[in-house]
Write a structure and sequence with these properties.
4% of the residues lie in helices and 52% in strands. The protein is mainly beta and 362 residues long. Strands 19, 20, 21, 22, 23 and 27 form a six-stranded antiparallel β-sheet that branches. Strands 1-26-25-24 form a four-stranded antiparallel β-sheet. It is globular, with a radius of gyration of 19 Å. The structure holds alpha-D-mannopyranose.
């Protein structure tokens, strides 16, 4: 049994200002986070929706690819139906548009990760170019090769894929381009080269479901060329069928421990048949990968470590979501930073010894 300490919201939508006066912030969530000396750099996903309503029309935001800002497309309700809170579906073609758009915001936070007022400047990182016109999402930050590398989801009519960027302090992105083509998300880089190569966990999302979409690992000499891909497999008992039957995905950036690479990942349940939402609950669990050969899963937590239980995790844009994105070392404890209900950022602490005891050899 892993005891959870100091579970708290860290950033809420009301803490930040929208990028434009006609947009409202609907979420600040799924953040990359990394300790930088005297502060924690948080790169948060900020999602915004248009405020204006027009009878018979749905607004769908889109960034102009020439960098000249945000445009609202008004889609006729006769042709587009609302699917869940996140998307609109074209009645004939089945193609979708998002009801909101996301950009990234860099925030420096004291290392104690206590909730406090966010002081400006909150540096916005806005989408750029054809592959980002519906937004950029879910960043993860890894310090590797003396660089701060950021993997983030790009959304466009070409679908969701993952790109890489270098950043010094989160305020400017030096874009390196797409590293995993559509549809692939939940890309996290390891903080060290392994046998000379960069390594990343990633999650392709296949159309044919022979089994649930799962975490893969791949390798690269330079961060641009990736190969040697394979799924991570571990024995899954009957008990995990429910909580990760929908899909699994990384997660926090892996952390080196004496016993192996510690990875906190998410499991997503299939929604119950009578549910109004298209998406089931997201919970967090842990894996341990072999230090020399991280394609080998050596231990797992058979049950979820963290499930949505508090109000800010249960109620929001997408209810019942714990989406872990960063694991920070706080001495005898780990601080887990996570997105809650696609609406806010939460943080909680677990004793390292508790987590170690919960890991069962695979
Ligand atoms: C899914 C969710 C959303 C996200 C879109 C596009 O619907 O993960 O949060 O905005 O995909 O990536």
């Amino acid at each position: 049994m892993v005891t959870i300490h100091a579970r708290r919201p860290l950033l809420l939508p009301a803490d930040i200002t929208p990028s434009r006066p006609d947009m409202q912030v609907v979420g600040i969530f799924n953040p990359g986070a990394i300790d930088c000396g005297d502060h924690t750099l948080i790169l948060a996903r900020v999602s915004e929706a248009p405020i204006e309503r027009r009878d018979g029309w749905h607004p769908a935001p889109r960034w102009r690819s020439d960098g000249s800002g945000l445009e609202l497309d008004w889609l006729p309700a006769t042709e587009w139906s609302t699917q869940d809170s996140r998307s609109l579906e074209h009645r004939d073609s089945g193609f979708v548009r998002l009801t909101f758009t996301s950009h990234l915001r860099a925030i420096r936070h004291p290392l104690d990760l206590q909730r406090q007022a966010v002081t400006p400047p909150q540096h916005p990182l806005l989408p750029q170019g054809e592959l980002e016109i519906y937004g950029i999402e879910d960043p993860r930050i890894t310090r590797v090769d003396n660089d701060c590398l950021l993997s983030y989801v790009c959304v466009s009519p070409a679908a969701a894929c993952t790109a890489l960027a270098r950043t010094r302090d989160g305020t400017v992105l030096d874009r390196l381009g797409v590293c995993f083509p559509p549809e692939n998300k939940d890309v996290v880089l390891f903080p060290e080269r392994i046998a000379g190569r960069l390594a990343a966990l990633h999650r392709p999302n296949p159309r044919y479901r022979f089994r649930a979409p799962e975490i893969w690992i791949g390798f690269s000499p330079d961060g641009v060329h990736w190969g040697d891909h394979r799924p991570l497999r571990w024995p899954r008992g009957a008990s995990d069928a429910a909580w990760c039957a929908g899909k699994t995905g990384a997660g926090c950036v892996p952390v080196r421990t004496a016993a192996g690479w510690l990875v906190i990942y998410h499991g997503n349940a299939r929604p119950p048949a009578d549910a109004s939402s298209e998406t089931g609950a997201y919970v967090a669990a842990a894996l341990l990968l072999d230090l020399e050969d991280p394609t080998r899963v050596i231990a797992t937590t058979p049950e979820p470590l963290i499930a949505p239980t508090t109000a800010f995790e249960r109620d929001g844009f997408l209810p019942d979501v714990i989406f872990p994105t960063a694991l920070l070392d706080r001495g005898t404890r780990w601080a887990v930073v996570y997105g809650a209900a696609d609406t806010s950022i939460g943080v909680l602490e677990i004793d390292k010894s508790d987590l170690e005891a919960a890991l069962v050899r695979a």
